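The protein record quoted for completeness.
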Amino acid sequence: MGPASWSGAAGPPAAPVTRDGVVSRPGLFGLLAQAGRVTVMSAPAGSGKTLLLRSWAGDPDLAERAAWVPVQGEERDPQRFWLSVLGALRDTAAGSKLVRPLTAAPGLDGWAVVERLLTDLSGLEDRVWLVIDDVHELRSDEALHQLELLLMRAPAGLRFVLATRHDLRLGLHRLRLEGELTEIRAADLRFTRQEARALFEAAGIALSDPALGLLYQRTEGWAAGLRLAALSLAGHPDPDRFAAEFSGSERTVAEYLMAEVLERQSEPVRRLLLRTSVLERVNGELADLLTGASGGERVLHQLEQAGVFVAALDARRSWFRYHQLFADLLQLELRGSAPAELPALHEAAAGWYADHGYPAEAVRHAQAAQDWGLATRLLSDHWVGLGLGGLGATARELLARFPAGVIAGNAELAARMAGVELGRGSLEEAERYLVLASRQLESAASDRRERSRVVLAVVRMRLARQRGDVAAVAEQAKPLLAPAGAADPAGLGLGEDLRALALINLGIAELWTGRFEEADRHLEQGIALARRIGRPFLEVTGLANWAQLASWQSFPVAEQRSRQAIELAGRHGWTEEPVAGVAYVALGFALVAQGRLEEGQRSLEQAERTLRTELEPAAGMRLRYVRGLLEIVSGRPEAALDAFRAAERLAALLVTEHALARRLRSHVLQTLVRLGETQRADRALAEMGEPERDTAEMRNALAVLRIAQGDPAAATVALAPVIDGSAPLANAHLWDVQALLLEAIARDALGDAGAAGRALERALNLAEPESLLFPFLLAPAPGLLERHRQQGTAHAILISEILSGPPGPDRPPAGGPGGYGGAGSPPVSRGGLGGIVPPRLFSQSEIRVLRYLPTKLSAPEIASELYLSVNTVKTHMRHLYDKLGAHRRHEAVEQARALGLLAPSPRRR
């Protein structure tokens, strides 16, 4: 028997034994232990897959090496699935040391989770089995593709066992060809006659050989059929006659036996089984509610102990579920015997789940009852809580279950749908739903009208913030900003959640539009409130933006706050999420300002991988702006100009001018000078309106231009109002240092050594407290600095740091005075790491293709996985090779791993 197939035991089967009423199946146990990297157990319901795997994984030798993941019914939420996978792996001995914790969060990216998991498990040395039961219930195509990627790239020590009712769309043929796939089918799971006898004997049933043969023949060894037969035979006066009369197809047999089992239960037990069959899981309290009786928990315990297809879901045995086949048949019986009771049962279940903190289940049951009003109220009332609790995908899935007409006719649902479209980046669709919501507002029930207004306010606030419309954000935040301790807005039960959300959104809008005092107050209040009410996602969001704000006044404080936000995000597994990207932008800016370019590069690359600039154009604008600053002081002005232009495009999406807009325009002009395009820069300044041309930012740019044109006297004229304060520049320590440094360079060129020294000393005085090296890297003046050091200064250490500068080829060229040498500047390197393009320049499509390069898939197979044409995949691969400086696929993979774009190579045993 090879590892890729199974057709029964190789030799005479070992005699089956029973343990706790379960028949041991050593042949299948041995196959699982010796299987290839991936085992697929594919068989219909009732074939004994789960029981077999639980018995095998429960062996003491495997207990700490097997991770058990049951997929929930009709699972469409990739986040919930991957969190359960990580949680199960962390429960194993090896996984507890390697796999980092991860907390649910809005918009958690499954692809990033898989890459993170591959990174964590790259050092796996012990063998671990990941058992995923009911994989057929995984209805998310995205999650299936992510699972396929994990199967292909997992380390050798991680073995997979997938149990499913039907074959999976996972590209398993490749594993089959490589001999790494073991398949166990329905025929393999059928009980042998010996095993069937052991099952009946464990149930205390003695059958003659002819009766056993007849039952075995008619059930064809089907595990559920045999078990149902054993239940029906218990206490039967004539087992042999029962076996002789037993007949029918698999479906008929199952239905017949279920009727036999139900008839043998007392009326109260039958009522409990039927009425609770509408639930995915049941406890004693729910059972009592749906039956109108008491003692439900005791009955459930008795049924589980009797093996009547009832299984406990937790160690305390408080929650139970029915075997799926059993539940299906109970539901069939209920629909036939009491169809009129179904809506009331679902409504009662919805109320219980809502009252006990299970909003998703509550909505599902209200929808099953087709009580759209109740479902709407439940979903809308819990929407914010679901989102902040990391169940945004579940909330969106529940919303999608409403009929289109119901959504269009309800103000709250239409507003929620607007929020969904906003999160997808579909602003036009978001606006359309907002119009629908507004139209339905006045016709909303009086007790829901105020709630609908609040819902609309939340969505409009988000939209306004993304557009940088601070006035609109403030207007929409008003109903949400009830004073602490005041009545809950609209009675939503989320007063403090909404207040924290409004404070932080208002603070973000104020930050990006330059209202720094108001932003500081609102962000600080929002962070404190989020921390107090236990909303870590809101806290991280506030901290990340508070770090952005700090960089306008103190880069060390910005660094401290951004690291605090990143640490908190890491504690919850959110370092690959957009909210962490905002913090990485702030950290990158602080590091670049202090001349720590390599660290800044890493932070910005992390931000570029995580921040969705199309959804957060204000934060994205600053990211591109800081990227441009890093590029220009690294000797790559062309790349800097590209980054600045990208920042301009994002800024154009905002209603209110971005706080950095003028500084961005100044740096564009300075970059044009660095590129030798002095005439173009001169023309742009001449075409500028006088008020803007007289600002400090533009005067600095004009001074850079005049120095490059060989007119230092004109540079000093331009700088005079900046230095004497008549062209004020609030919160701009970098620009003040730059103005004084340019003044020193210009005075030195004019031969006024005394004035040059005084200006330089003032620049160093301002730069020293925060170690602001950036202005000195932007306008290098090594000779001037060296002379100043030799003449004696308190800033000798700072000057040494400046002169050491960025190492090697990344050091900005001196070119001409101040480094703005025009056409005399040397050629610019296009690579970020020895000619390799930095990771930020990879497109999302290229990243998707890159993730498949470590696998053995060919280009056509990758194209099939990604639903792309082969030519498109090959084009992406060529671009990847070029950007990674590679000639072959394995070289590209190694380079991508070195850049942190792919998980490290797993250790092979």
User: Anything to note?
Assistant: DSSP finds 48 helices and ten strands in the chain. Residues 1-14, 247-252, 807-839 have pLDDT under 50 and may be disordered.
